[in-house]
Amino acid sequence: MKLYIKNMVSNRCKMIVKSELEEFGLHFIIVDLGEVEIMENISAEQRNLLNFNLEKSGLGLLEDKKRVLIEKIKNIIVDLVYYAEEQPKINLSDYLSGKLNYDYTYLANLFSESQSTTIEHFFLDHKIERVKELLVYDELSLTEIAFQLHYSSVAHLSNQFKRMTGLTPSGYKYLKLKMRRASENV
User: Fold this and answer.
1) 57 φ, ψ (degrees, to nearest 5)
2) Measuring CA to CA, which of 6, 14, 116, 123 is 20 to 30 A from 79?
3) Out of 1.10.10.60, 1.10.10.10, 2.40.50.100, 3.10.580.10, which CATH number does the structure's domain 124-184 have?
4) What distances in angstroms separate CA 184 from CA 134, 140, 172, one per listed residue?
5) Nearest-CA neighbor of 34 among 65, 10, 58?
6) Angle CA 62–65–66, to nearest 5
7) What is the 3-state secondary structure (H, E, C) of the chain?
8) CA-based R_g, the chain, Å
9) 94 phi and psi angles, rounded to 5 deg
10) Residues 108-150: pLDDT tens digits?
11) Where does the pLDDT of residue 181 fall: very low under 50, low under 70, confident under 90, or very high at 90 and above?
12) Annotation: CATH topology of 1-63
């Protein structure tokens, strides 16, 4: 039986879901971003209780097919930005259409109506958040970050970062480090 879970965007979310399933004595075949396959069928009462427990962690079960599709779009994008070793050789619209077997125009309209943002903006927001995370970790140079996130150049990354945050990557890094030192002194 497949269950679809909202807001499941990280490995920590996977651990929470696995723990909840085990607590219910359910055996999972696969736990992936936004989707779980379990061996058993569950009753409506079990489903409601599982949903209640998941909601305590900011997750929850999805019933509506359109909401499931929107969560799948989000999970594919999160997977691309945070976990994919290689970016697809095709553009995002073709990639999503191929993965979900829907026309991209339909996906884009559905997503925009529900989320009040476009798929492209959602994708860029996540890329910029990933850049911020990598800047704060301070393990990679800006060139390495641009390469890892498949920007065409450091200049492209920097321009997009500044347009979306109002800061240059180095300015953001400086502010975060400055704020970090200040909080450590408290």
Assistant:
1) -100, 10
2) 116
3) 1.10.10.60
4) 20, 23, 18
5) 10
6) 100
7) CEEEEECCCCHHHHHHHHHHHHHCCCCEEEEECCEEEECCCCCHHHHHHHHHHHHCCCCEEECCHHHHHHHHHHHHHHHHHHHCCCCCCCCHHHHHHHHHCCCHHHHHHHHHHHHCCCHHHHHHHHHHHHHHHHHHHCCCCHHHHHHHCCCCCHHHHHHHHHHHHCCCHHHHHHHHHHHHHHHHCC
8) 19
9) -65, -35
10) 999 999 999 999 999 999 999 999 999 988 899 999 999 989 8
11) very low
12) Alpha-Beta Plaits (3.30.70)
Handedness of CA 63, 8, 88, 156 (dihedral sign): positive
Count other C-beta atoms under 10 Å from residue 45's C-beta: 8
Domain ranges of the chain: 1-63, 124-184
Task: Tell me if domain 1-63 and domain 124-184 are identical in fold.
Answer: no
Name the pTM for this structure.
Answer: 0.78
Shortest CA distance to 157 belongs to which of 140, 179, 137?
A: 140
Find the distance separating the first CA and the last CA of the chain, reported in whole Å. 51
Overall size of the chain counted in residues: 186
The Cα–Cα gap between 47 and 56 comes to 15
